[in-house]
Amino acid sequence: MNTIGRLVILVRDYEEAITFYRDKLGFEVFIDSEAPPLRFVHLRLPEQKDMGIWLLQASSNSQLDQVGRQTAGQPCAVIYTEDFDNEYKRLINNGVKFTKPRASDSNAEFAHFEDLYGNEFILVQLQTEVVD
C-alpha cells in the first residue's frame, strides 16, 4: 500500500512559517530536528496524524523566487472540514486572508485563502447525502 506523507512547501524563514501554520491555521509541529546543514520541520493537523506539511527553507535564489509560487498560481492543497462555518470564522479571526469569497455548489461549500507567502489553499466541506 502506498500513501502520501507530506506536502512540501518552500518557505523564506522557518520561524515565521511555523508561527503562521501553527497559530493561524491550527497545525502542530511534530518534527523539528537539525542535521546540519539541514533542518527538518514537519507539521500536521492534530486530527490527521499520517499526513502533513514539510516546511523546507529555500536555500538558493531560484528557490527563493519560487516561494509562494510553487504551483504557478494554482491551489497547492485542499483542507477538508466537517464544520465549514466555524472553521471559516476561526480562520478569519486568526487573520487568514481569503482570496475568493465563500461559495457552494451541489457537492461542497468552499473558500480560497492564502498562506503568508501567497500559496493558495482551499477550505472545503463536502455535502453529505441524507439516506432514508
From TrEMBL:
VOC domain sequence ranges: 3-126
Pfam families referenced in this protein's UniProt entry, alphabetically: Glyoxalase
Name of the protein in its database record: VOC family protein
Lineage of source species: Bacteria, Pseudomonadati, Pseudomonadota, Gammaproteobacteria, Cellvibrionales
